[in-house]
Amino acid sequence: MANVPNQAQCPMTIRIFFVPARALGASILIVAMTGAAPGAAASRDAGVDASPPPVAHLANADDPVKVEAGKLIYAQRCSSCHGKRLQGQPLWQLEDQYFGRRAPAHDESGHTWEHSDEELFHITRYGRFTTADPTIPTYMPAFDGVLDDEQILEVTAFIKARWPLGLRISQALLNPGYAGMPAHAQNEDWTFPPTCVTSVQRWRLGSR
Ligand code: HEC
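Predict the joint structure of the above. Result:
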């Protein structure tokens, strides 16, 4: 299945959920306050490399100009399949013979937020995730040659900007150095979504 969340991401998220609540809160605050360069304490708590490589394709959902540009692109290029309200095609979750052919939701009911920025860039450009088996057909169009890099980042920024804060924080944890951590994370009330374990199991069961 093209969109099985990759192994490298999920354990990190799971490990983070096992960090005691107070330590976790502290580490997220540090991350939120230091942006793309998390402090040593945050790295230790979350079990990630303290000096990760920079993210080549980071979509800035805190930039209203990019988000607005992305909204237009989304309406023109994505909404016919993924839904005007990002709700996905009807029955997209149904695991029947059309599983994987229906465009999933991009809002909080979907699983777009379970992928790093680099992966979202890749699937939008090439129509499949890096981890996808190339022999299995994909029903997601490749936008290479249709949208340039900047436009792909803008449409991704628009999608990210629509997520509740907890989802945005959870997704930023998948990026090296927690890049893309929402700027206002430390000022607002938010909760994490459920861990991605259930989703991984669901996708594994649905794989064929
Ligand atoms: C012709 C229908 C169609 C259009 C138009 C389309 N998509 Fe998709 N998209 C799909 C399908 C079908 C999938 C599921 C692919 C799979 O499961 O292998 C998908 C999957 C995705 C995913 C992966 C989501 C996940 O969590 O697995 C992303 C990201 C995505 N599309 C982004 C976009 C963006 C951005 C646009 C507009 C620039 C777009 N798509 C336009 C059909 C479409």
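The chain is about 45% helix and 0% strand.
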